[in-house]
């Protein structure tokens, strides 16, 4: 365990590096050349144009205005200045609520810290146990501030027990209040949305096959009978993989056409000759403009043919449909009710908004879905507890002596000292690092296999999987040194009530480690986040070598979304650490507060200026966030019980037992009180009515490829989702009683 | 452990006693004097009249027809003869499905027994381990038939593992099939019910207070706005305790009036003089007929006044209402959807049928409800694991030496040997026995505190609590001798994977005990059930001393309902024993089959001739039954893993691990596939429409006391539920477009 000095040094280093990052950021961000990296959101909104269009050549690249350097920290107040309603308007509710997670951390931990430092720290400090030992073993000062300073069976443990109750009830209060506020925000947000099409649309899956009717007719008849007064129209889902690849190809060609047209406009005399073969290196020489125009024309024809084929081919129709209703009431009714006596067919749920739909999963049959979930549950278990096994295998294969034996000709290289030590030192770490980088992707793939139909749902499922992994492998793994597999093995060979004891006992000893972890992973990580080093480099590389047209530039600066599935569980780790250590070693709390404060600042800046959400789920992730904090609370209570039961304070253990019971009960109360607002839509709010809806789920002129489809069968006529809208930042709102122009209905589509 | 001989003897004794019971039953049931005890259901249906009205005096009491004695066993084929649709028509779906639980036992265990005896028994028998030991310790033959006969690490365990898989999959198949059949039966049953009022009615609870409107107006406005096209009428719930007690009093007086009128009719000359004081012993002498007529008239007036008072007093209105819709579709929509953005108010659910409503729980606020559930969960835990503590206290108080010290004058009595040994031997047992007799009542009271709104819901919750108790205290308590508290204590001080090992290891040794248990509790218990000794005695006592009028006689013969909450968990114990021992000691299986067969026969007879269900829930309990069998399956698998892991067969343990995972998965598949049919009503079926419904939830001429209401505040104008209908056996069907006659609407009741 480290002394206060050690921690001071570490803190100094980390503060310096964080400040360094922030300084670099402050300088880099005001350079015009980087403007598109640090303010992409404003470009996408169309309210900011490149500062490079004005001024002289130098000022296009470097900012020479000294006054801006003096005000280099003004992004911080600017980030805080935007009021919340405007923030919601600007960045969406998802993002606005996401930064509230950090705020929630501050709300929970600032009062807890004040209380812990005014009550627990003096109590710990004045306990003489560790100080009495003057014979040589020098105890660290941190231990004098922690619960370890109390002797076995000390009466002072009652103070800690009381504090555990106070902290728990404070957390209850803040969590409950926050859940309430965010639920209100969500309902307000949904009510204010001006006739969003998904508020009138229901996704119907597992439509049973009918021998006499097509899927479209079947849907129409079913809903016309069972929702007579509210059914408006429907759109079946088509499998149009071929069509989608044609569209994608056409887009690429059109981009080239734009490029050559620009070239031609700049220099009308120059003949633009390209070769038709591979990568323009071989083949016949043709005129570029002419070539692209004719190819695009051909593709258009092919597209039309393919479209006709898809529409007329019953095999291309998936057993899923989007059904629209003439009132929100009708849609709410349909989404919340069971349609037939067989609950595995005609499954209805609120349609995700068009950008949020995950198309490949729309047509999975009921039984297959449950088999998939079973397999993924088993896989998650093995991934969490045995992920070290394949990595250890890779590492053993990468053993240099083995390599030498198998490939003797490498011997001279390997036996030289330099490379040997480098490889020996790095290889094992690299295998692990690569795995950890790909982990969110792996977990996301698993969620996709589970068959959720919306991107937001996928993110939420990934987050809960990732939290499990972090809890087992980062938290428990650090506390009880050893891989999860070893832990599992030792735990199942241990008495049930010994497990919390074993973990609880090691908790105080790991405080220094976690303080360092918070500084390195938390502080420096957040500072690196604001600098956006990787996007900065990538943008300049792309801008220099690949960007030909405006469309290319927009793609190059695409800032992406907040990756909820991988960032949120990491925040949860700090909640867990804070709650676990609040009673045990309160000295860790200020570090967590700094993290939450800094992160709040940075992410508020990022969602204002950088990130552009791909979809808007209306803070549907909050029940998950709430649930994980409650889980962390229960874990912290069980570990405290374990710790105290090793301190010969049996009565105190009993006094703590009601805490986890109360916490679980609190969870159910909140669930019953608020969760329905995230799943259902109340009928009372459903008075909005429309007469005609142009479904954003269907227009035939804009088709997206659904990648990673194994059986190559799922795809549909899909407009209004994905990059198209994300890139332009437009909401796919459909104005009522008006078919938006520029959208051509595919002829022959079944429609009422 | 017993030898085959011991078991043979025990079986012989039990078979003899069971046959004895059955013989007595066969003789007793054909005596005319007992006719109302053994065929009350037919009396209630009005299709059977007393055989005592015909023949001479002797034949009124004793059956002298010799031929009926020769056919004394013909009740058995008669019980099986009634086809199922007719049985449903006659006894209701609940009862018909209840006897299918026994049939399910036969379906699961007959093939398993055949397979176990043709495969496992030979494998166990030919293993030489226990037989080799010729030196003196003689092993029992039962052990030679059980898994214990295999040596440590024997290869033959693989046969048992294979069989565990076969048994599991067979159970899956039967369970799935049965769930499907019963779901179909339920939907068919509901569809065939001719416009049952509860199919159009939704129970609304937690109606928020409105400063400007009464509850009735508030409900009307809310539903008229939010369910414009379907809302028909509503009925608020009144608290009318005083009124109810008046009605009850009137009923008693009317019974006396009928009695005296009968007396008068028999002997018109005799003057009927009674005293008005206590029990007719003191006070003024008056003419009986006149006295009762005037008193009843007065009560009628008081009733009218009280009724007016209740209706006009806003404080008497509870925040709950029954809302009726003009179509099943409208009611289905309202019951399944969330009404407002606050999910704790305007809670809607399908109304239980009128007889099934548990009135006192209709008006519990949301927060209070969750507090109650928390307290009951904690109470259940303590009841299950610490129920021995108060009993041990009682027993220690009842210690004779202590009694002698406190009450020295009892010394001469206590010190005599006879009473001493009797009391010493019986007292501890009696305390436990009394507790066990009252246990279902205690559990039912706990369910009531939990706040369920229907009697069927209360029964279901009680059943699951009782199953937990039986599993912990009967099954585990017998396997690992010792109280649940001792077990809990030893378990939490034991390694997690040692718990199934400890239990699993003792399993084979307890086979003999459980075989005896099945014979005593199962066989003899069922035989006693058919004899109905207690109702037989009670009826004759009442008939002799208390019965004055026909109404009294009907009350005396009231057969009651099947007590689902206390009988079903006991059946589940047999499922558990069968599944646990199927692989371990198959010799137990024939005993279980005999139990299920006998019980099926007896209960089919009982529901045809005796029991009269108080309510009809449409087999809503099946998901619980299914869930508990699946739980038993998982328990059996875990115990088998535990047992095998003590037999030095590590690989086999691993080979069994997928079983519990698969079983849990199977549970979720069934839940998703079938459970909604027991909670929701599909919209497709909801095409029935009515124009006017006379709510059976409200008529003012028939009011019931709700007993056990602590705060004396819940009661309502309630007709059509409880004994009134139960006793006459009529369904509370309301014919459409017609207000049933004989029901007087209370004037001024809010109604649309």
From TrEMBL, chains A, B:
Q: Where is the composition biased (Basic and acidic residues)?
A: 730-740
From the Swiss-Prot or TrEMBL record, what is one GO molecular function term? calcium-activated cation channel activity
Recite the UniProt keywords alphabetically.
Ion channel, Ion transport, Membrane, Transmembrane, Transmembrane helix, Transport
Chief localisation class: membrane
Q: Which domain of life is it from?
A: Eukaryota
Q: Which residues form the CSC1/OSCA1-like N-terminal transmembrane domain?
A: 7-178
Which Pfam families does the record associate with it?
PHM7_cyt, RSN1_7TM, RSN1_TM
Q: Where is this region: Disordered?
A: 720-752
- Output a single Gene Ontology CC term carried by this record: membrane
Q: Where is the CSC1/OSCA1-like 7TM region domain?
A: 372-644
- How does the protein associate with the membrane? Multi-pass membrane protein
Compartment annotation: Membrane
Record-stated family = Belongs to the CSC1 (TC 1.A.17) family.
Spell out the protein name for this chain.
Hyperosmolality-gated Ca2+ permeable channel 1.4
Q: Cite the source lineage.
A: Eukaryota, Viridiplantae, Streptophyta, Embryophyta, Tracheophyta
């Amino acid at each position: 365990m480290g002394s206060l000095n050690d921690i001071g040094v570490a803190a100094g280093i980390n503060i310096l590096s964080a400040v360094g990052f922030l300084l670099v950021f402050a300088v880099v961000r005001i350079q015009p050349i980087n403007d598109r990296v640090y303010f992409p959101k404003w470009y996408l909104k169309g309210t900011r144009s490149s500062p490079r269009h004005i001024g002289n050549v130098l000022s296009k690249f470097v900012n020479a205005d000294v006054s801006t350097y003096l005000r280099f920290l003004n992004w911080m107040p600017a980030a805080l200045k935007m009021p919340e309603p405007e923030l919601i308007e600007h960045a969406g509710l998802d993002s606005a609520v996401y930064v509230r997670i950090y705020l929630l951390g501050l709300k929970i931990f600032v009062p807890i810290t004040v209380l812990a430092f005014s009550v627990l720290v003096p109590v710990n400090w004045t306990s003489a146990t560790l100080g009495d030992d003057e014979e040589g073993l020098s105890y660290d000062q941190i231990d004098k501030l922690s619960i370890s300073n109390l002797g076995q069976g000390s009466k002072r443990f009652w103070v800690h027990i009381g504090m555990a109750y106070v902290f728990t009830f404070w957390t209850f209060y803040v969590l409950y209040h926050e859940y309430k506020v965010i639920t209100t925000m969500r309902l307000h947000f949904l009510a204010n949305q001006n006739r969003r099409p998904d508020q009138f649309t229901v996704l119907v899956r597992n439509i049973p096959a009918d021998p006499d009717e097509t899927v479209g007719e079947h849907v129409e008849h079913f809903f016309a009978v069972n929702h007579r007064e509210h059914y408006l129209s429907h759109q079946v889902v088509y499998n149009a993989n071929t069509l989608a690849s044609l569209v994608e190809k056409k887009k690429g060609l059109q981009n080239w056409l734009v490029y050559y047209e620009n070239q031609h406009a700049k220099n009308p005399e120059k003949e633009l000759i390209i070769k038709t073969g591979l990568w323009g290196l071989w083949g016949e020489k043709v005129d570029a403009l002419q070539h692209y125009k004719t190819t695009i024309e051909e593709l258009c024809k092919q597209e039309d043919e393919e479209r006709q084929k898809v529409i007329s081919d019953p095999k291309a129709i998936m057993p899923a449909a989007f059904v629209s209703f003439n009132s929100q009431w009708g849609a709410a009714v349909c989404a919340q009710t069971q349609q037939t006596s067989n609950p595995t067919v005609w499954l209805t749920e609120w349609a995700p908004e068009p950008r949020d739909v995950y198309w490949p999963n729309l047509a999975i049959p009921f039984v297959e879905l449950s088999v998939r979930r079973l397999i993924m549950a088993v896989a998650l278990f093995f991934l969490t507890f045995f992920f070290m096994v394949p990595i250890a295998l890779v590492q053993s294969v990468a053993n240099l002596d083995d390599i030498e034996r198998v490939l003797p000709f490498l011997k001279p290289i390997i036996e030289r000292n330099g490379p040997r030590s480098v490889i020996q030192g790095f290889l094992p770490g690299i295998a692990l690092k690569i795995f950890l980088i790909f982990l969110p992707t792996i977990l996301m793939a698993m969620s996709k296999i589970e068959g959720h139909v919306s991107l937001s749902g996928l993110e939420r499922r990934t987050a809960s999987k990732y939290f499990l992994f972090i809890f087992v492998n980062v938290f428990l793994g650090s506390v009880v040194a050893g891989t999860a597999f070893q832990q599992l093995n030792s735990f199942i060979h241990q008495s049930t009530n010994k497990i919390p004891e074993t973990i609880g006992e090691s908790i105080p000893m790991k405080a220094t480690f976690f303080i360092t972890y918070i500084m390195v992973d938390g502080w420096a990580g957040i500072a690196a986040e604001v600098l956006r080093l990787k996007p900065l480099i990538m943008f300049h590389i792309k801008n220099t070598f690949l960007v030909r047209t405006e469309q290319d530039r927009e793609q190059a600066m695409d800032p992406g979304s907040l990756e909820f599935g991988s960032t949120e569980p990491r925040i949860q780790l700090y909640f867990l650490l804070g709650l676990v250590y609040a009673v045990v070693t309160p000295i860790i709390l200020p570090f967590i507060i700094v993290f939450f404060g800094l992160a709040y600042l940075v992410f508020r800046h990022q969602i204002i200026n950088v990130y552009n959400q791909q979809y808007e789920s209306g803070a549907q992730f909050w029940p998950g966030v709430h649930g994980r904090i409650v889980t962390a609370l229960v874990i912290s209570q069980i570990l405290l019980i374990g710790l105290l039961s090793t301190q010969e304070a049996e009565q105190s253990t009993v006094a703590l037992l009601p805490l986890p019971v109360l916490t679980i009960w609190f969870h159910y109360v909140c669930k019953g009180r608020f969760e329905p607002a995230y799943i259902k839509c109340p009928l009372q709010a459903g008075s909005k009515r429309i007469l005609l809806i142009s479904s954003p789920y269907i227009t035939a002129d804009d088709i997206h490829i659904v990648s990673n489809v194994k059986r190559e069968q799922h795809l549909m006529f899909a407009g209004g989702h994905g990059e198209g809208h994300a890139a332009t930042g437009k909401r796919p709102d459909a104005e009522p009683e008006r078919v938006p122009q520029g959208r051509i209905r595919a002829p022959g589509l079944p429609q009422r």
